[in-house]
Design a protein that fits this description.
The structure is a single chain. By secondary structure, the chain is of the alpha/beta class. The protein has one domain: TIM Barrel (Alpha-Beta Barrel). Helices cover 47% and strands 14% of the residues. It contains eleven helices and eight strands. Strands 1-2-3-4-5-6-7-8 form an eight-stranded parallel beta barrel, surrounded by six helices. Helix 6 links the parallel strand 5 and strand 6. Helix 2 runs parallel beside helix 3, helix 9 runs antiparallel to helix 10 and helix 10 runs parallel beside helix 11. The radius of gyration is 18 Å and the shape is globular. Bound molecules: flavin-adenine dinucleotide (FAD). Flavin-adenine dinucleotide binds next to strand 3, strand 4 and helix 6.
């Protein structure tokens, strides 16, 4: 089943699609470890699982296709393979399309990617500048294509109106669903959803939520993506600064309250950045299916 069909069915049935993101674990045993993570998630019955891709050719990118195939074939759960275009040449995209088609992948999240430190950039390094540039070829190849959305705007773009226009370009290029960047204040998402609708963005937008696990993790994330840290989160980070277990529990609890509020506000879907953690996936699912 494609992700677009999952959202259509949920709209028809009045249900809420819940999805998980996982990443290919590093190291030689990554596929075995990924299999363990995915198998642990399966009994929670997510509507789909997306698998990240290391931008710019860093990391083990072949693993994304393998893991997405394994999730489809072994767990009978629809998967989404992420793909970044930051250093992709036309021939690379054609080869990637063949690889994913050969593996029976049906859904792709088209991304630009963040430039990894030390990766070559500039003229001649890539044939695609923005995520929207690879969407038509993926759609033509028969994939159901999704793209990234930013409730607080992308970190490189200060103008919210421009950010929405650029998002609309992804829909116009053929994206049929959107997954948002993490946010810690749902009000940003609700305002963004209104602006997107007013701009003619009609494809389903699933809200991405990541629990904070440590001050270090959250600092890295907010500096990478520009999400705001609201005062309740800062207070929890301060209260449990020297108590990592309580901080993790508070982070998961906070994310669960966000998810419940999103569900109550009729979002199209909830996407959980699990960080490959079963406790996160389990807590999120139990908050949403309660
Ligand atoms: P784009 O849509 O190309 O946007 C990048 C920047 O270019 C933005 O500032 C945008 O405003 C600007 N822009 C877009 N179009 C135009 C235009 N026509 N003219 C001028 N400027 C323009 N990264 C990974 O490396 N691997 C992953 O697996 C991964 N998964 C992700 C999943 C989700 C749900 C999200 C939200 C992000 C993910 N990322 C991932 C991070 C993502 O790659 C970065 O946020 C990246 O900086 C932007 O990617 P994009 O696809 O949104 O880029």
């Amino acid at each position: 089943m494609t992700i677009a069909q999952i959202f259509e069915r949920a709209q028809h049935d009045g249900t809420l699609p819940v999805s998980f993101e996982m990443f290919p674990p590093k190291g030689e045993l990554s596929l075995e470890r990924a299999r363990e993570v995915a198998h642990a998630f399966a009994p929670l019955a997510p509507d789909f699982v997306s698998v990240t891709y290391s931008a710019g050719g860093s990391g083990n990118n072949a693993a994304t296709t393998h893991i997405a195939r394994m999730i489809n074939d072994e767990l009978q759960t629809p998967s989404v393979a992420h793909l970044t275009c930051i250093s992709l040449k036309r021939a690379d995209l054609a080869a990637k399309i063949e690889e994913m088609r050969g593996a029976g992948i049906r859904n792709v999240l088209a991304l630009r990617g963040d430039v990894p430190d030390g990766a070559p950039t500039g003229p001649g390094c890539a044939d695609y500048r923005y995520a929207k540039d690879i969407i038509p070829a993926l759609v033509d190849a028969g994939f159901c294509v999704g793209a990234a959305a930013y409730p607080e705007g992308h970190i490189e773009c200060d103008d919210p109106a421009l950010s929405i226009q650029r998002l609309k370009q992804k829909q116009d290029a053929g994206a049929s669903f959107l997954v948002t960047q993490l946010f810690f204040d749902n009000q940003y998402f609700y305002r963004f959803r209104e602006r997107a609708a007013a701009a003619g963005i009609a494809v389903p937008i699933t809200a991405g939520i990541m629990p904070f696990m440590s001050k270090q993790q959250i600092t890295r994330m907010v500096f990478m993506c520009g999400a705001s840290l609201p005062s309740p989160v800062i207070k929890l980070l301060a209260r449990y600064e020297n108590d990592p277990a309580s901080l993790r529990a508070a982070g998961i609890e906070y994310a669960c309250r966000q998810l419940e509020d999103l569900a109550a506000h009729g979002v199209d879907g909830c996407h959980v950045y699990t960080m490959n953690r079963l406790d996160v996936a389990r807590a999120a699912m139990s908050a949403l299916r309660r």
